[in-house]
Write a structure and sequence with these properties.
Number of helices: 4
CATH architecture: 3-Layer(aba) Sandwich
Helix content: 10-25%
CATH class: Alpha Beta
Mean pLDDT: 93
Strand order of the largest sheet: 1-2-3-4-5-7-6
Order of helices and strands: EHHEEEHEHEE
Largest sheet: 7 strands, mixed
Distance between the termini: 50 Å
Strand content: 25-35%
Length: 158
C-alpha cells in the first residue's frame, strides 16, 4: 500500500490552514499550469514576502488532508479595504472548485476584520486566460482602476 494520499475529488472538504515549518515543503513544490506562470508568483516568493510584511496573512489551501494551493491577504485592520494578494491552486487540482471555496472562506475571514467594507484583487490584463472571469463569477466587479499593468476588481462586503 502506498503512503501517498488518494487525490481528493470535487466533494473534498476545503479548508485554509496555517503553514508551518512542518507543513511548508508541499507548498514550495506546487506549480501552476505553464501559461499561468506569468500571472502568479511562486509560493516560495509569496511566503518569503509574507515573512517581511507584517500585514500579510497567508494560509495553505487543503482539500481534505491534501495541500492543493495557497492564498495570501494584505490584512490592514486600520483600513476598510483588504486585498487578496495571492491565490494559486496547483495545476493538478484546478477546475475542482477549490479556489472558489478558498475565496469564500477568505471572504468570511475578512468580514470578521475591523472596518472591512471591501475586498480588492487585481490581475494582469493582457494575458490570455487571466482570472478576471473567475473573479467576476464570485461577485467581484472591475473598479476602472489600473495599477501598473493590472486591472483592479472589488467585492463589496457590506
Amino acid at each position: 500500500m502506498s503512503d501517498e494520499l488518494e487525490k481528493p475529488g470535487r466533494d473534498a472538504v476545503v479548508t485554509l490552514r496555517e503553514i508551518t515549518k512542518e507543513t511548508l515543503r508541499p507548498f514550495l513544490k506546487m506549480k501552476v499550469a505553464a501559461p499561468q506562470e506569468e500571472m502568479v508568483a511562486p509560493n516560495s516568493v509569496s511566503i518569503a514576502q509574507a515573512h517581511f510584511e507584517p500585514k500579510a496573512w497567508f494560509r495553505g489551501i487543503y482539500a481534505d488532508e491534501t495541500p492543493v494551493g495557497f492564498i495570501m491577504l494584505f490584512d490592514d485592520p486600520e483600513e476598510p479595504v483588504y486585498f487578496l494578494w495571492r491565490l494559486m491552486v496547483a495545476e493538478d487540482y484546478q477546475g475542482l472548485g477549490y479556489g472558489r471555496i478558498a475565496i469564500a472562506h477568505l471572504v468570511e475571514y475578512v468580514k470578521t476584520r475591523p472596518h472591512a467594507k471591501e475586498l480588492l484583487v487585481s490581475h494582469v490584463q493582457e494575458i490570455d486566460g487571466n482570472p478576471g472571469p473567475f473573479y467576476q463569477k464570485l461577485g467581484f466587479e472591475y473598479t476602472g482602476k489600473v495599477e501598473g499593468n493590472e486591472l483592479v476588481m472589488r467585492l463589496l462586503l457590506t
